[in-house]
Amino acid sequence: MKIPVVSLLGLFTVTASLVLRGAPDPNWLGHDRDRPPPTVVIPGTPSTQEQPGMPPSDATVLFDGKEVSPWVAMDGSPTKWIVKDGALECVPGSNYIRSLQSFGDCQLHVEWAAPNPPHDDSQGRGNSGVFFGFGRYEVQVLDSYQNKTYADGSAGSIYGQYPALVNVALPPGEWQTYDIIWTAPRFEANGALLSKARVTVIHNGVLIQNNVELTGPTGWVGRAPYQAHPERTPIAFQDHGNPVRYRNVWVRELGNHRRKEIKAPDTLLDSYVGEYRQGSQGNPVKISRLPDGLLALTLVGEELVLHAESPTKFYALTTDVLCEFNFSGSTKKIAVSVGDDESRSMHLERTSP
Known about the structure:
Elements: H1 5-20, E1 60-63, E2 71-73, E3 82-84, E4 87-89, E5 97-103, E6 106-113, E7 128-132, E8 137-141, E9 176-183, E10 186-187, E11 193-195, E12 198-203, E13 206-213, E14 233-237, E15 245-253, H2 266-272, E16 274-277, E17 285-290, E18 294-299, E19 302-308, E20 313-316, E21 321-326, E22 333-338, E23 346-352
């Protein structure tokens, strides 16, 4: 029987949707005795107003009350936010900050406190935001305790799209918690949208966003359409001119990612751009810039997208290609390897900027 192409596309979409939403794995039988058991994780402990709790044992801690190094300005330069009394505090006018590390689907725990005494009202009072997708999608942070504003801009709203189901804001100065389940949008190789972003938010222990489907990036005016971007991107906090404080920030990535990924500073990525050769007769290897902190490696006519594992080590997602930069002194070199075939490893020097 010939199946129409439209039906195949529909079947593909449904199948992809089921995989993204955690359908049972067809590779295992029901009650399969050979199926690996869940990984043992030591759960975290609850926070109090006086003391932050302990993250789960498998969490990546983004702020522990002391160290600001996991955070940078959006361009990768050092952040101007400060650590004060165990909290990461926004310095008004210093701009957004983002995590150095990138994440895909994840569980994010954030504790925040609005300034006390409060100043101003509506959107001018205790305003900040938690962003996914490298500044594209916002869960609003706002002092919504006895503070009237538009519904889809209140605390816990998906800004400009979904108001919180209920208002459970605490008084200014008190520590509040967001537990956010983020499902990143997926895009096909040609940039077409495969599945939309989804967000669940629990505010102070109360469900306020129930797996809502985002229409696209959030924004103050208008509803922008989706544009293709990497699945794994940094998490960001907003500077909206208020000294909002954050503490006990941790994340658990909910995907099978073999490698850590960071977003390197723009100036560093720019410095790697150019052509490299292995000897005077070798074929050139080209490094170029892509949006969202990515590099492209053009090798034997094929362009591979490179993701940063560290400031000097990059890898491709679709082929086992590793690229390491060595810019010591005036010599600019890269080592490129494909799989474990040592005969095809290349050590190249830059010949043009």
